[in-house]
Write a structure and sequence with these properties.
Strand order of the largest sheet: 1-2
Helix content: 40-55%
Shape: rod-shaped
Number of helices: 7
CATH class of the largest domain: Alpha Beta
Largest sheet: 2 strands, antiparallel
Strand content: 5-15%
């Protein structure tokens, strides 16, 4: 009789522990933001997961930085997070935030280049839009450093072989 009571008590204790763990996991992973405002967070190249989680916490994207770090490390995603300026909105889970950082879903900036501009004028347009300096752009063209340009203009839409159409989208220069 006493053994039955002990087993019954142990089973009840296990059920309560499992329900508590389930509740806490759902609580911490469901709603991941504080409010409906869109927040911009810049992740720099080479930043650690701990530093990224601190930035997300400081910007109120997440409310538990340790859980974010745990999720990333358990899923072995540390080396997969990409640098860039990210926009985050309401109701994102840990998985949503992490997927954005892995996929590199950075905020794209729209730049309009009027037809007929010279390369020097195009360089000034890029500089005015804080993509990179005119000098960097022109010297990369002179040196035929296409890897420099490709790294910064990888997300361009509308770059054709002989003609540049009016609108391109590209990430901010700090993130390339």
């Amino acid at each position: 009789m006493k053994l039955r009571s002990i087993i019954f008590f142990f089973l009840i204790l296990c059920v309560v522990a499992l329900l508590s763990a389930y509740y806490l996991f759902n609580y911490y992973t469901k709603e991941f933001t504080y409010n409906s405002d869109i927040k911009l967070v810049e992740i720099n190249k080479g930043e650690s997961v701990t530093k990224i989680s601190k930035k997300l916490l400081d910007n109120k994207i997440i409310f538990n930085d340790k859980l974010f770090v745990l999720y990333v490390r358990i899923n072995k995603l540390e080396g997969s997070l990409k640098a860039g300026e990210y926009e985050f909105s309401k109701n994102l889970t840990i998985k949503d935030v992490t997927e954005r950082l892995i996929n590199g879903d950075v905020k794209l900036r729209k730049v309009t280049i009027p037809e007929g501009l010279t390369l020097k004028q195009i360089a000034q347009v890029f500089e005015r839009n804080n993509l990179f300096s005119a000098t960097e752009f022109l010297s990369a063209l002179e040196d035929q450093n296409l890897s420099f340009l490709a790294a910064r203009l990888i997300h361009m839409k509308g770059l054709y072989s002989r003609r540049l159409i009016t609108t391109v989208k590209t990430p901010d220069r700090k993130n390339s």
